[in-house]
Amino acid sequence: MAAAIALSSRGRPESAPNPNVGCVLVQAGRVVGRGWTAAGGRPHAEAVALAAAGEAARGATAYVSLEPCAHAGGRGPACSDLLIAAGVARVVIAAQDPDPRTDGAGIARLQDAGIDVLFNVLPAEARRAMAPWWTRRAEGRPFVTLKLATSLDGCIALADGASRWITGDRARAHGHLERAQHQAILVGRGTFDADAPKLDVRLPGLEGRSPQKLLLTSGSAPAGWTAVAAPESVEGVDSLLVEGGARAASAFLAADRVDRLLLYRAPVLIGGGRPALGDIGLTDLADAHGRWRLVDSRLLGSDRLDVYERIRTI
Amino acid sequence: MAAAIALSSRGRPESAPNPNVGCVLVQAGRVVGRGWTAAGGRPHAEAVALAAAGEAARGATAYVSLEPCAHAGGRGPACSDLLIAAGVARVVIAAQDPDPRTDGAGIARLQDAGIDVLFNVLPAEARRAMAPWWTRRAEGRPFVTLKLATSLDGCIALADGASRWITGDRARAHGHLERAQHQAILVGRGTFDADAPKLDVRLPGLEGRSPQKLLLTSGSAPAGWTAVAAPESVEGVDSLLVEGGARAASAFLAADRVDRLLLYRAPVLIGGGRPALGDIGLTDLADAHGRWRLVDSRLLGSDRLDVYERIRTI
User: Fold this and answer.
1) Considering its fold, how many domains does chain A have in total?
2) Domain match, A302 and A158 both
3) Strands (E), chain A
4) With 70 as the cut, is the pLDDT of residue A50 above it?
5) Where does the CMP/dCMP-type deaminase domain lie (chains A, B) (predicted)?
């Protein structure tokens, strides 16, 4: 199942607005098919894995990160019907599909056809891998990642604004990979005016993945950019990467619209530089605790990346 | 040898002003004696290990983190003579002693007695374990550790000064352990006036280890404290822990008097709070690079501790 969930991440962000799902077919201990949701949402992961397995799917176990859909659409048959037709013996499901057209109906259809179904085996992990889709579906807003690249003392630039470069090549390459995994990127007006950032993905093979460009501004946006008046106004995307500067970052944090923090930290001290954040509305230290959980930490060259997730109790 | 170097750390800071040395005696693959420099500098590590081994020292190999001394003093015989008298067959030395009374003379005396000597096997590691003694001996100044406890965005307090508590219990306990390993602790005038810190070691069994208290001030110091006018004016100790605030930390960094950074970071965001550092004299980002190397990183509860060392080319 972990493999199916890992595969599901390959569908991000191109499966949007459909969920990114992963599927692994196992026959007598051997993987006979794998798949993930394709760009635009079709074909689904199960269809890809079944096509790869061919006759080997008969009697196999299918591991899927999300409940197979129960609704046939203009773009293809329902996955639960595909699994039944292929003769799989068993389906293991990480998380149930909250879409009212499926939500248990996929499981029921499989069981009615005599297939052994095990479900909700790794719901939290599956939801994390599909966080953008899940957040937009549950809350009608994008899943927001905030990127901060700072010195050890939390500065994003010298007092005169100089910020090239605080972090090194590998951290910057990782930042480009994050861009490729988002549908949209946002910067604030100050950063736009100062840096005129391109926000494209400069990684071999991923140049085509450059996301939509959003500008947080009360005014209008130049050609190629979309103006966004407030953190609450971002629409039409599942995933958003906020790249700076301090004012845009603070606005998203003050609105509690940040779900994930990427903290790239270089082994340098600046002292008296520009802080990563301005006021985010905190008045009592006790309120700051219990909001962020470290989920990943790694060295990128001599820089450190710490990834935190917002602890939400929804 | 790694074991001998690890043992040497147990002598810190109480062996000062003598070097903290570790010694392990191995006979036919078994450890027959261990020792480290005692409080006040005597007995030496070798004497302790030889006493523990007794007759088992005959024919043994002695691993010592620093070249055995060649000079007998009023407080005991030279360690090289002790090793010869005990009949050890072989001496392995991590680093040569820069003290002109020994500096190769210990090795020569052992060799003249027919003992097989291997030396300079782990000089950098031994020097790191004896960094306070080594720094004061080589540069006539203490080895300085700067402690910073910050939020993820590099703040040490809210804008109104509130800083209790940013980090958690385990990080604070680790801070007390660091206090116990230093001969002196320094705070700046602002921190003294605002917090009246006790700077004692609140750890069971280590209460007696509370170090000297220094106050960075152009004025005088209250009872129990020693006034220090500038980072360059600290005298009489091998090791100094700078605990804050931002102005004291910045003064030591601006003077390039910090050798080691302890960065405790809590998983909280403050935004618009008090920065960890003020101006440290940096005008070009390029100059900030290549100065600090990460040497340890660990989680203390939900806080992270990163330890950096100043890269010096002496």
Assistant:
1) 2
2) yes
3) 22-27, 30-36, 61-66, 90-95, 116-118, 143-150, 155-157, 184-188, 212-216, 226-228, 239-244, 260-265, 274-275, 292-300, 303-310
4) yes
5) 1-117
Count CB atoms within 10 A of the CB of residue A205. Answer: 8
Tokens encoding B139: 């540069």
In this complex, how many residue pairs, one in chain A and one in chain B, have their CB atoms less than 8 Å apart? 151
Chain A segment 154-173 residues within 8 A of B by beta carbon are: 154-155, 158-159, 162-166
Q: Is A253 on the interface with B (CB under 8 A)?
A: yes
**pLDDT exceeds 60 at position A314:** no
Which residues lie across from B63 on neighbouring strands? Answer: B24, B92
CATH number, position B253:
3.40.430.10
What's residue B72's pLDDT? 78
Cβ(B115)–Cβ(B91) below 8 Å: yes
Residue whose structure tokens are 């002496």: B314
Interface test with B, best of A269, A294, A303 (most B CBs within 10 A): A269
pLDDT in tens, B181-200: 999 999 999 999 988 788 88
Same domain, A77 and A145: no
Selection from B180, B167, B182 nearest residue B306 by Cα: B167
Task: Output the CA–CA distances (angstroms, integers) from residue B221 to B193, B201, B225, B306, in the order listed.
Answer: 11, 21, 6, 32
Task: Check if A295 contacts B (Cβ < 8 Å).
Answer: no
Domain boundary at B131, B156, B186, which? Answer: B131
| Among B77, B99, B131, residue at a domain's last position | B131
What is the domain extent for residue B237? Answer: 141-310
Give residue A202's pLDDT band: very low, low, confident or very high (50, 70, 90).
Answer: confident
Q: Give the model's confidence band at B52: pLDDT under 50 very low, under 70 low, under 90 confident, else very high.
A: very high
Instruction: Tell me the percentage of chain A whose pLDDT exceeds 70.
Output: 100
Q: pTM higher than 0.95 for the full model?
A: no
Query: Predicted ipTM?
Result: 0.88
Task: Compute the mean pLDDT over every residue in chain B, rounded to the nearest whole number.
Answer: 94
Mean pLDDT of chain A: 94
Evaluate whether B126 touches B242 at the Cβ level (below 8 Å): no
Residues B171 and B67 in one domain: no
Contact criterion met (CB < 8 Å) for A253 and B269? yes
Q: Which residue of B has its CA nearest to A157?
A: B285
Label each residue of A177-192 as H, E or C: HHHHCCCEEEEEHHHH
